[in-house]
Amino acid sequence: MSMAPNLIAASENSATLPRKMRAGVYRGPGRVATEYVPVPEIADGEVLIQVAACGICGTDLKKIQHGFIAPPQIFGHEVAGAVAAIGRGVHRWKEGDRVVSFHHVPCGACFYCDRGLFSQCPAYKKVGLTAGFEPNGGGFAEYVRAMPWIVERGMIEIPADVSFEEATFVEPVNTCLKAVEKARVEAGETVVVIGQGPVGMLLMLLARRAGARVFTTDPMAERRAVSERLGAAATFDPLACSVAEEVRKHTAGRGADAVL
Ligand SMILES: [Zn+2]
Ligand SMILES: [Zn+2]
User: Which domains does the chain have, with CATH numbers?
Assistant: First the structure.
């Protein structure tokens, strides 16, 4: 999702910020309405980010479609934008900085963090990025408020040669990279990635980056074509063949070392 940059005049500081902003507000199963909501106010140690682009996660779509969470909510957690205002005591960021912001971060010091099980960390379960209502990312709005622990440890600067749209991939790439590392994919190994939607495509690219030969599957011909163009060794239609057999044929009968 991209926001047209000219909808709100660039804000030099909080005094010139608009009071209202547009947001895609989840109002119930299958329903997201464009509404005007207050621009979040920031407290000490917090940062206001003007959203430039926000990815749409598969989990956003699931929550919206099936109504897993009580409305109202403003979703969107693959956020890239520019710092629009900083609260007192913030030294790490200044207005205009181009940033990606996570919506939650692990503490890095608990039982779970020690074992790399970050999603079980109690601090990680606390969402610290919001455009209003119960914090839930908020990237589907024009501004989001980053809370102090996100400001300190959950925002990263976007390099000058990376666009906002590209930067929104930090969160999904991060997730996929963890999977590839967990599978301990090594150079020379054979990996099969099931499905070549956006996430499957990232897994394929990251497994290749780890040095693996990667086979992919997808029932959609267009996705198989893109997959091969981006570097899959071969790609199979799971409805038209036995993927396991095909992979064995390509690996002298050994099969895959990892399947993602
Ligand atoms: Zn996500
Ligand atoms: Zn922790």
Answer: 14-168 (3.90.180.10), 176-259 (3.40.50.720)
